[in-house]
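SEVERITY: medium
COMPONENT: batch folding queue
REPORTER: lab tech (J.R.)

DESCRIPTION
The queue accepted two submissions in a row. Attaching both inputs and their returned structure tokens so the on-call engineer can compare them side by side.

ATTACHMENT 1
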Amino acid sequence: MQSAKIDRYLRVAVGLLTVIFVYVIYAAIHQRIVVAGDTAPEFTITADNGRSVSIPNFGGKLLVLNFWASWCPPCVQETPSLSQFTQQYANKGVVVLAISVDKDEKAYRAFLQRFRPAFLTARDFKIHEDYGTFMYPETYFIDAQGKVVRKIADGADWNDPQLLRFVDSQL
């Protein structure tokens, strides 16, 4: 009698685990991952300086959308060159928006205090999901029509001549 009851519980548990497993697989397969050529998912966010940035209305400029975190070594490494890039292209029709996924606000603020980035910064926990971004840093170049024209799924040297030629070709 006891054995039949345990057997029944085990069958229910295995059934539940199977349903959960199938759901996780289904959700993973249907996860949207934005790539070059896609229309960028729309969002509106207020940067730390109070400026509102939205897709597709960001002033007809090339938007460089960078997802990062303070605990990410490649993010830390690319920050100085991204600031130099921002200063170099600020008057050429490029807007750089770096959205942190940091849960820890103190770590986020300490990062900003340490690096004093020249680009727009904001913190958000949802927008990166809309882009299918879960590894950092990841950067999207979005044209004035809201199309993703390039994606960099890694840290970048923002002074790299090839990268600068690409940006120049978009302006």
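ATTACHMENT 2
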Amino acid sequence: MPAFCQSDDLAVGRLLVASRDLGDANFSKTVILLVHYKEGQGAVGLVLNKRTDVPISRVFHDLKEASGRSDPVYIGGPVELNSVLALLKSASKPQGAERVFGDVYLISNRDLLTQTLASRAEATVFHTYIGYAGWGSGQLEHEVELGAWHIMPADVGTVFHADPDSVWEHLIRRTETQIANVYQPPKSATNYSSASGY
């Protein structure tokens, strides 16, 4: 049976949804937003659904702009846990930011992060991440071909979800429903589905 998601669907602004049998503890039940991708040159993504209990004000205790902020920091992935990246939804492109999709931008330098904190960006449109997920050339494509990840377009509601713990379960169910619809043979009128609960 062909893979439902092909590696040629990979691009900046795509979501990677971990398959149920992905065994890597770093990525089990994760949803990752690809923020950098070039075929043959590797990929960088941010795990969207690993929220910590640590507030921004504690992580950036040296920045007065972060003072008093209680919104939590996220673990973006296992690579370079001393680095900080952020995602911001903004009607206009912040100078120095990189567009990921729609009006969602990646903030990857400290000055722009400080400016964003100073602007009092709401937690509903601004998330900070410690570390990131990274793949070398061909590595992510190989994992997709093995069925480790489902690929789908990103949307703002998923990226800034108020309950990140629920995101993976919701997306994996949606993916499995799509796969079932693609591969299901037509039902005859007398074949009642047990999936309806009756």
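NOTES FROM REPORTER
The beta strands are 14-18, 31-38, 42-47, 51-55, 72-75, 79-89, 98-101, 104-107, 126-135, 149-153.
No errors were logged for either attachment.
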